[in-house]
Amino acid sequence: MQVPAVAAGSTNTVVQTISVTAAATGVYDFRFDGYSLTKVVAGEEDFYQSEAFSVGGHNWAIRYYPNRDNSRVSLYPVLLSRPADDDGRVRASFACTFLDKSGKPASKDIADSASHAFRSGAGEEAWEVLSLRKEAVERFDDCFVVRCTVSVLKKPMSQPSDEEAVG
């Protein structure tokens, strides 16, 4: 596609980009020390939980299950606060990447993302956002770091019904 040339003497056009589906986004690194001890101490449904962090006006945490699956380490996002919207849902996406010792993504194969509409809050756990092979984790000297990007989408707008428009 050819871009038309701007005629001499014409005024420049300023283009402003506005996000229609605005989201609040936060990036957090979670460090897991003592991996070998956590997998010995924790039962199948036992988890470790990160400190709370805030994105989009909501409080979140990451739950780490060292033994939910025999061959994998699992991470789950958790909504700690109750949704304040009238529809009772918080829409969020999480993208997590396993980092190497230098702080760079270890591999494209050790990353995952998903979206979820949280309904209840107060400890509601979502989908498994990242599942790591235990062999991959064990290569990092009993410590690993996961970077999570959390985006909370603003509530979508809807057309007023005829009754709302009149009254």
TrEMBL record:
CDD domains the record matches: MATH (cd00121)
Record-linked Gene3D superfamilies: Apoptosis, Tumor Necrosis Factor Receptor Associated Protein 2, Chain A (2.60.210.10)
Domain (MATH) ranges: 25-150
Pfam family, one: MATH_2
GO biological process: protein ubiquitination
Entry coiled-coil feature ranges: none
The protein, known as: MATH domain-containing protein
Lineage: Eukaryota, Viridiplantae, Streptophyta, Embryophyta, Tracheophyta
